[in-house]
Amino acid sequence: MNIKIFVFNPFYENTIVLSSQKKNCFIFDPGCYERFEFDELNNYIEAEGLKVKAIINTHCHIDHVLGNHFLKNRYGVPLKIPVNEKEIYDAVPEYAPQWGIRNYSHTEVDKYLKEGAELALDEVSFELTEVPGHSPGHLMYYNKDEEVVIGGDVLFRDSIGRTDLPGGNQEVLLRNIREKVYTLPDEVTVYPGHGTQTTIGYEKRNNPFVKA
Length: 212
Fold this sequence. Notes:
The strands form 3 sheets. Strands 1-2-3-4-5-6 form a 6-stranded mixed beta sheet, with helices on one face. Strands 7-8-9-10-13-14 form a 6-stranded mixed beta sheet. It has a two-stranded antiparallel ribbon with strand order 11-12. The protein contains 7 helices and 14 strands. Helix content is 25%, strand content 30%. It starts with a strand and ends in a 6-residue tail after the last helix. By secondary structure, the chain is α/β, with parallel strands linked by helices. The protein is globular.
């Protein structure tokens, strides 16, 4: 497994390209919005000889879905989102202008993902766990073999996802971090939707919002 992180859009969102040994890849949470961002991402994919297999969202706040339309059409691949994020995703075109995003293009979902399911990319497989609180249907993608989590906006280094957006609930988020995230091994590396990566063990000891 290889992971490449791009920081895109005014929200400094992490777009993650995860590739297999066979050079196939998933693009998680494409936040690319400007043309130069699309070019940067595409140049990397071409330089590495990668074949995009799917666009996947951890959740569907605007900063994580801005590139869905362009990349789905550019690479001719399916868009997969958490099933309980449908309402959040469908609302993006209406509120995008309020955030200063005036050129947003919406695209249809091809597959809805559920907790308990598995997602595979060649030798890389993920267990899907629903971790609401930041958003109502947020999914966490856990690879047990290499101890990696694609975590979206649930847990950050020394912080947690905000809970003041529609569908957010701080009590629910904190409970889910304790019961569903902190139960993973301490060695697991978390790749969040913003900021630098962290580990489960570090956050259990140091996170000021939710300690083990």
